C-alpha cells in the first residue's frame, strides 16, 4: 500500500551532515554536493554560521541544535579538517545521533611540531596555488569579516587533541586521507585510524589536504 511504499522510500534516504574546514563555505564543496548519488540528502554546516559569536565552547550544543532544526534524529557525518575534529567530538559525545563517521584529513591529533603560524602559511600557500589569486583574495576577505572567530578556530584546530576520545568512538568510521597532505600530515590520519575501534582507512595517492574539494568523486566512489 501507499504507506508501505512511503516507509520504504524513507529508508532509502541517506542523510549526510557536512562540517566544512576552516574558512570554507558552500561554494568550496559544490562539487561534493552536486555529485551526490541519488538517495542522499546533504546538510552542510558552515562554521561561521554554526558559531556566529565565536563561542567555541558551545560547539557541541550548536551541532545538536542544527540537527534539531532540520528534524534529523540521526545522520552520517562528514568532517573535513577542523570540521573533522568537530564531527569526531560529536560522535564521541552523541553516538546515538551518528549513523556513520567520515573523517577527511581531519584535525584532532595535536603535534608539538610546527607552530600555528607555520601551518597557516602552508595552508594559504596551498590554497593560492590550487585556486588562484582571485579565489585566494576572496577567501582572505571572508576571514577578515570575522577575524575573532577565525583566530579562535585556527587556535582550536591547531591545539585540540582528541586521541582519548577517538579510542571510545562507537560508530562505524572511515578515515580518508591525502597522501601528500601538508596541513594535517598522513601520520596523523594513521594515528586516528589506529585509535578508532574497527575503523577503515583509505589513502589517496598524490592527493593533498583538500582533495575532497578538487576530486569529490573519490569520496563517493569509496563509501
At a glance:
By secondary structure, the chain is an alpha/beta fold. It has helices spanning 2-12, 30-34, 47-50, 59-69, 82-93, 116-145, 147-159, 163-166, 186-195, 211-214, 217-221, and strands at residues 14-19, 40-45, 75-80, 98-104, 173-178, 200-204.
If you had to describe this structure to a student in words, what would you say it looks like?
It is a single chain. Helices cover 49% and strands 16% of the residues. By secondary structure, it is of the alpha/beta class. The chain has a 6-stranded parallel β-sheet. It is globular, with a radius of gyration of 17 Å. The model is unreliable at 2-11 (pLDDT under 50).
Supply the key terms.
223 residues, alpha/beta, 6-stranded parallel sheet, 6 strands, 49% helix, globular
In which range does the helix fraction lie?
40-55%
The class by helix and strand makeup works out as alpha/beta
How many strands, which pairing sense, and closed or not: the largest β-sheet?
6 strands, parallel
Total count of helical runs of at least 4 residues:
11
Strand/helix succession: HEHEHHEHEHHHEHEHH
Large-scale geometry:
globular
Q: What's the overall average pLDDT, rounded?
A: 83
Compute the gyration radius: what is it? 17 Å
Counted beta strands: 6
Stretches with pLDDT under 50, minimum 5 residues: 2-11
The proportion of strand residues reads 15-25%
Spatial gap, N to C terminus: 32 Å
Strand arrangement, largest sheet?
2-1-3-4-5-6
